[in-house]
Amino acid sequence: MENIALLLVGGFLGSGKTTAIVQAAEQLHAEDIPFGVITNDQGKKQVDSLFMKGRDIATQEVSDGCFCCRYRDLEAGLSAIVESIHPKIIFAESVGSCADLVATVINPLLRFNPGNYRIVLSVFTDIRLLMSSLLGDERLFSGNVHYIFEKQLEEADIIVINKVDLMGQEQLLSAKKLISKAFPDKLCLFQNSRSASDISEWLTVALQQASTVSTRDSLDIDYDRYGAGEADLAWLDQELGIVTRQSDCFEASWSLMNLIQEKIRYHSLPIGHLKFILDDGIEQFKISFTGTADSTAGLDFTQRKAHRLVLLINARIQASPELLQELVSSSILEIEYRLGCQITVRSLSAFQPGFPRPTHRLTR
């Protein structure tokens, strides 16, 4: 097997990992560089993998558990991409609540596949969440969830401080000083993942850093705290069919998405991420809400018409699964009544992640 650059992408929910990979994919497509992507989620229906496939990106997915607990699926996905397109680069995006990737993913891959991969771990973080953490404000998420966030940053080869465009110049300057002081031994990149030049820099740096072929020291991590942090988060995956008498399915979908996030915020439930895919049979649209912002840039539904479409929901919220499911269900009923549309639940899964039990854990 050719020595492939495996760009492992970690970081907390809503940090902009998928956006960065999609932007990098556009650049690699333009340069005719073969690459693939492996997505990962605790659930079985993944917005991110659908979004990738809809953009003609060679994509494998590891579902129903994180990379560490589904390690054999990860290896199978890597092999499938290698055999099908002979890539120079593979992106592997881990679940946003996952940590300890060095011991459970990187070291096993290097040990069991010597010489096959050059691996680097880029850990993404929303700059505003990071600043809140560094300033001692941990109110957004529970202490155990915050523990996962800290451990993700601790094991990074590259910390990608994302969404810098959402800060003013003076605010960003102060943030850079504080972050540099907090992580003096880390390679930190400050970027806007929608910026072509920023993504180009990230790719260049990541490929330069992906040079080691030896195992490395792993985290000192408390798995009881780690597992408790994952248990504080609820996962909801739901597929809906929406039908309207007139051509206003986009209006109904937009109203439903906003009502769901409004109810979640009304109950002061911290949002890891709240992602939606709209599919009208012709085109797909992705909309994201996080604890700090929403991502609807460039989307204009006012001129779009459809009698029916499919809406896929991925919600990762600090709440109980029962409460999250109730908020989504009540939102569906309210929109049906308000707009006179028909919304059918095609599939539904609401749960808490199980305790992390990695297939392998190689501390060196």
Could you give the topology of this structure?
Layout: E1 4-11, H1 17-30, E2 35-40, H2 47-53, E3 59-62, H3 71-85, E4 89-93, H4 101-112, E5 117-126, H5 127-134, H6 143-154, E6 158-162, H7 169-182, E7 187-191, H8 196-209, H9 223-231, E8 234-243, H10 249-266, E9 271-279, E10 284-289, E11 294-295, E12 308-317, H11 321-339, E13 342-351
Parallel strand pairs: 1-4, 1-5, 2-3, 2-4, 5-6, 6-7
Antiparallel strand pairs: 8-12, 8-13, 9-10, 9-12, 10-11
Helix pairs in contact: 1-8, 5-7, 6-9, 10-11
Can you describe this structure?
- By secondary structure, the chain is of the alpha/beta class.
- It has helices at residues 17-30, 47-53, 71-85, 101-112, 127-134, 143-154, 169-182, 196-209, 223-231, 249-266, 321-339; strands spanning 4-11, 35-40, 59-62, 89-93, 117-126, 158-162, 187-191, 234-243, 271-279, 284-289, 294-295, 308-317, 342-351.
- The strands form two sheets. Strands 3-2-4-1-5-6-7 form a seven-stranded parallel sheet, sandwiched between helices. A six-stranded antiparallel sheet has the order 11-10-9-12-8-13, with helices on both faces.
- Strand 10 and strand 11 (294-295) form a beta hairpin.
- The longest helix has 19 residues, at 321-339.
- The model has no long low-confidence stretch (mean pLDDT 92).
Write a concise synopsis of the structure shown:
It is built from eleven helices and 13 strands. It has helices at residues 17-30, 47-53, 71-85, 101-112, 127-134, 143-154, 169-182, 196-209, 223-231, 249-266, 321-339; strands spanning 4-11, 35-40, 59-62, 89-93, 117-126, 158-162, 187-191, 234-243, 271-279, 284-289, 294-295, 308-317, 342-351.
